[in-house]
Write the structure tokens for this entry.
Amino acid sequence: MSPPPRQTIILRSENLHAEDFGALFSRFFGNRYADSPPIPSSIIIGGVYGRHDGVSFRRMHYHGDFTVTFPDPQDEITFVIPTAGKIVFNHRTESVGVAQVGLAIDKADIRSMRFLDDHAQHGISVSRAQHGISVSRAQLTERLAALLGRPVVQKIVFEPVVDLHTAAFRGIKALIDLATGTEFDLLLNSGTLMPSRLREMLIDAVLEAWPHNFTEALRQPAPRVAPRHVKLAMAFIQAHPEQLVSGVELARLSNVSQRALQEGFRRFVGMSIVGYQRQVRLARAFEALRHSASVTEVALRFGFSNVGRFCQYFQQAYGVSPAQLRGSGLIGL
């Protein structure tokens, strides 16, 4: 029995009316904007849009001024590289993207966006004359944790407005040009390796090139190898995340003094013993909530006796509340 055909991940359009583009987009990727009012049919949309496993990338242009509203928050960060016209995001404030002014926008905060003056863009997310990329916050956090070699608890915050004259941003634009060029269509739409590799490259590109609150940590040289007693304590914490073990007990298990263990965590892990325990417990709680366990059950299972405090820590770490995560499309991914 032959395997089912792979889903096409690249959409190309040549100056379609908004209604026709919307129908084509829904056929490829589903109706992701069903709750948003329709775009006026007089608007003309063209370009290339791709989407794979929670990451989208685009090189688009739009003729005519229009507004898109978002009734519900979305768990994505969109990176917009305008090449013509203007795009205006209405969120906690107002962010304006024009040629050579790039934007990083948390779509959980967006209420609407306006496309003006025949906007064009490159992007990673959803926008108008532009290049762009959009990445789910969970995937950014997961990849950052892998690059740092430790769980990431603090919310990733990207520089909201950047000067696109910088070489690093020209590199992101060139990567989107490559991804949206016709040369890759066969590999992306029928290959088994290239879609995932491209997805990883796009995520790594924004983590490395777009400034954020973990930029300095990523640029630091590889940490020295932790001594045996620190590794023993870390392994015990990871193997027993539901246990609240004191520093004294961990030091006894590691055969060193509590002071030596505390200093080892500070030097080789970059945080306190308590901070590392919290990171591991929150990471395990995140995984449990993705499989639809109740918030209270998860909080208590991983040693958070105060559910409200657990929700506060979780929000700070992942940018969404435990309840929002359970109610989102991230569950079961």
In short: The CA atoms of residues 2 and 190 lie 14 Å apart. The chain has 13 helices and ten strands.
